[in-house]
Amino acid sequence: MKIAIAQINCTVGDLAGNVAKILDYANRAKAAGVQVMVTPELSLTGYPPEDLLLRDGFYAACDQALFGLARDTQGITLVIGHPQQVDGQRYNAASVLRDGKVVSSYHKQILPNHSVFDEVRYFSPGTEPCVFEADGIKLGINICADIWEEGAATCALNANADLLLVLNASPYHMDKQVSRYHAVRERIGECGLPVFYVNLVGGQDELVFDGASFVMDGAGVLVHQLPAFEEALRIVELENDRPLLGEVVPQPPVEASVYKALCLGVRDYVMKNGFPGVVLGLSGGIDSALTLAIAVDAVGAERVQAVMMPSEFTADISLQDAQIMAERLQIRYSELPIKLAFDSFLRTLAEEFNDLPFDTTEENIQARIRGTLLMALSNKYGSIVLTTGNKSEMAVGYATLYGDMAGGFAVLKDVPKTLVYRLARYRNSLGEVIPERVITRAPSAELRHNQTDQDALPPYEILDAIMEAYVEHDLCPHDIIAHGYAEKDVRRVVKLIDSNEFKRRQAPVGVRVTPRGFGKDRRYPITSKYRPWLE
Ligand SMILES: Nc1ncnc2c1ncn2[C@@H]1O[C@H](COP(=O)(O)OP(=O)(O)OC[C@H]2O[C@@H]([n+]3cccc(C(=O)O)c3)[C@H](O)[C@@H]2O)[C@@H](O)[C@H]1O
Ligand SMILES: Nc1ncnc2c1ncn2[C@@H]1O[C@H](COP(=O)(O)OP(=O)(O)OP(=O)(O)O)[C@@H](O)[C@H]1O
Ligand SMILES: NC(=O)CC[C@H](N)C(=O)O
Predict the structure, then answer these.
(1) pLDDT for residue 18 is more than 80
(2) Which of 404, 417, 437 gets mutated to test ligand 2 (max ligand atoms within 8 A of its CB)?
(3) What is the ipTM of this complex?
(4) Which residues of this UniProt protein bind ATP (predicted)?
């Protein structure tokens, strides 16, 4: 008996494309003598389809695609994830397709409604197991969150399952795989069934699904591990109901996995939305340097344009480093000085401003001129503007609305500044593209003379630690101070984080790589009188 794991990159809403991909994988699996092929959760629609799931017409289209897929599949049994409407109830389902028919369906029992998940908004929970037979072996079905709690796996065991097929759409964040192994081993501890953990791969707006599907035997031993961040078809041989040992691909270390997640997130956002390429402002600083490296690795140098837009505050080394990087990466590179536009703005505003001193206003005008130029290139050539702000800056509002925040996709939105440096070093370890000086010089917005980020903000090691404690772990300022951080830093950073929610709400979407990003999994009021930094 052979079971295939189809670790595929599905596109939300592309029913015909997803069906074609599943058929292609099924044909390859069939040619290799496979009896059963398993696809990820909601493989027919992509995940998460969000409010498409509130439309009756969407379920009708899914049924049509599912029955078409069943008709076109002969000689192999498929397990397909899809949304299903039964008697007015909506379910997150997995159906068994065999001999041209949909022979049975399972309804997900545990609906996740935390962090980035909203499944209670869309689905009713299932209550029944679904076990089908292939080659004399009884295969039980679970779907993703089912396996993270006690219940659904035991339900399959009680229905006489010999092993468990688990369809997943489990998004990536750092160290996620460890928690998946842990959850699956807990279930195996309870039910003793081997588990086929089949995960989706690909980017969907802010989420990246890393694949990294695996198989554990009934003792919780890892017997197959698929690669992360790429599609794969893995054929697992069984002796009776025992999965035999196969390739165990090592999981990438954290910098490599975050880097790959960012590349996949950018590539799929750009490609699935049909952009011919990307454009970004290249300042000679670390954030735009790393963003450029990711962009090139994601979509290829021929699809990337970088623009250096010097002002009177731009250091010579910034210009040199931008040129060196463009040369190393062989991208389209232009220089568009902003002096003329800046002077023109100042002249136009001179009477209004009435000799008031140079302040953030003028800094922001420069950032906005750059944003306007990049958006003009985007409009003219159809390329999407990548913004470069990192998580630390997005946390404290250190970015200009309609300036460096103008754009379509925020690559580093969930990458704290300290991790930006680690990723730059990691990328250079594969071949040096970021000039060493860009990594070692003090970060500066170069919006006035002799400016450095550290004039305005605590050192990034401290800022990032306080941010993680407050944003990811929900600690209150007192607890953070008790961890050894200076009271003034904690109160200041927390105040900045809370009072800049308005900016983040207007920021482009970007790839989530931490357990809590500034996206679907953090919903704070903009208007709020609750002020934890004063407590
Ligand atoms: N609650 C609220 N709801 C909606 N809108 C609100 C608001 N509070 C202020 N605003 C609006 O927002 C404006 C202030 O925001 P904004 O215009 O962006 O400007 P602002 O936050 O005052 O300044 C931007 C800051 O980011 C720094 N920066 C800029 C560019 C790049 C970098 C970098 O290193 O990467 C750093 C810069 O040095 C400065 O400290 C207000 O004038 C007001 O119009
Ligand atoms: N001279 C410039 N030419 C082109 N783009 C610029 C220039 N200055 C700023 N930008 C754009 O605005 C973004 C914000 O940059 P800024 O230098 O203000 O702060 P930063 O967060 O230190 O970013 P970086 O590390 O990339 O410099 C840059 O990443 C870049 O995309
Ligand atoms: N789609 C799901 O049910 C995912 C839930 C699960 N906790 C995960 O992140 O893997």
Answers:
(1) yes
(2) 404
(3) 0.91
(4) 281-288, 388
